Amino acid sequence: MHEADKKNKPKRFRRVSGRMIYLDNAATGRYKPKTVFEAMMAALQTPANPGRGGHSASIKAAGEVERARECIKRAFNAPDCQVIFTCNCTEALNIAILGWLRKFKGQESRVICTAYDHNSVLRPLTALKGEQDLTVEVVMPDEKGEISVRAIREKITDKTRLVIATHVSNVTGGVTDINAVGALCKQYNVPFLADCAQSAGHLKIDMQASGMTFLCTAGHKGLHGPQGSGFLIVKEGTELLPIKFGGTGTESLSISQPSQMPESLESGTLNTPGICGLRAGVEWTHANLLEINSRIKAFCAVLRDRLERISRVKLYSPPGSGLVTFSVDGMTSVDVADELNEAEIFVRGGLHCAPLAHIALNTVKDGLVRVSPGWSNTEMQAEITASVIKNIAK
């Protein structure tokens, strides 16, 4: 629709209460606990560059960064691992994928990924295919819409350098058994990377029990941290080539990049306020994990129940998932999302940066509408949302 037509389009669905309902938490979590603001404000009020000086302010800032690393290690049971701070999950995935696979340049290599992987996985792999002898094998979901360990096992060869799996799909909310995938990779001595952007803060993730080599996630989604934060956890003894180069505060006499993590992968000034906010978000989230997800599951259960009664609505997310994706027959997902926006209900329509998932689901043409609730959403809001979708479907 032309922009001018959108402005003149009558608003058919208005909220009775006049207050908006934010349901795009899978993109960015709306709710932030008070402790996140406090931690960030404290860092902003006394700024200093961690690791860039011997004065007390620099040392204190470095201590806050290390405090955040230790917090993350405890939350994900990764005591002997390295925590690399990034600006989001995309950067974490790029560091892990490029930093690991470029070590095999000049060798025939194979990578296994899944149809549920985000473009933050698919695009680095595609770029690498143009640089080196790399074959990417994609595991498609089975008839239940799941990624099976058996399908991954069938693709493993002696040339397989890495297995990548998305823990929770950002399209359907379906869960892949990363513990089973990790056990398989350990059996075949293949490194395993898990994209936990949608699962961190919602599911219990144990770095040691899962057998993961790399864990990538964002801070601004389920962990209730600020935008511009994320991290990569790397199993001890695993080396990565850096993908960016610059000052680290260490080995300053050398013009070569340091080889020791985390400094080798953290060039430039760190986002100290964001890291402090992330630490506070991780602490709050893990202290309230059961209640957070109880609220989310209750919202989704109500919404699913109501949408299942609407004949023109088709659900794509599995029962029990922490988000609800659907389509309305005869409408594009963007049009449905626009109608909901008029009612001040904010959801995500489109392809969600996961093209292979939509190919597998046969939803490329119209996309899907994704409703992703968070801590602050209520069952009453689920009722209101369902009512508006019912009117749209009419």
Characterization of this structure:
Helix 3 packs parallel to helix 9 (272-287). By secondary structure, the protein is α/β, with parallel strands linked by helices. The chain has helices spanning 3-8, 34-45, 56-75, 89-101, 119-129, 149-155, 178-188, 207-210, 272-287, 289-307, 333-342, 355-361, 379-393, and strands at 21-22, 82-86, 109-114, 134-139, 160-166, 192-195, 214-218, 230-234, 313-315, 324-328, 345-346, 348-350, 368-371. The chain is built from 13 helices and 13 strands.
Q: Look at the helices and sheets and give the structural class.
A: alpha/beta
* Tally of DSSP β-strands: 13
Describe the strand arrangement of the main beta sheet, using strand numbers.
2-8-7-6-5-3-4
The percent range for strand residues is 5-15%
Stretches where pLDDT falls below 50 for ≥5 residues? 1-10
Q: How would you spell out the order of helices and strands?
A: HEHHEHEHEHEHEHEEHHEEHEEHEH
Q: End-to-end span in angstroms?
A: 20 Å
Report the total helices: 13
- Write down the Rg: 22 Å
Described by strand count, sense and barrel closure, the largest sheet is:
7 strands, mixed
Topology:
Layout: H1 3-8, E1 21-22, H2 34-45, H3 56-75, E2 82-86, H4 89-101, E3 109-114, H5 119-129, E4 134-139, H6 149-155, E5 160-166, H7 178-188, E6 192-195, H8 207-210, E7 214-218, E8 230-234, H9 272-287, H10 289-307, E9 313-315, E10 324-328, H11 333-342, E11 345-346, E12 348-350, H12 355-361, E13 368-371, H13 379-393
Parallel strand pairs: 1-11, 3-4, 3-5, 5-6, 6-7
Antiparallel strand pairs: 2-8, 7-8, 9-10, 10-13, 12-13
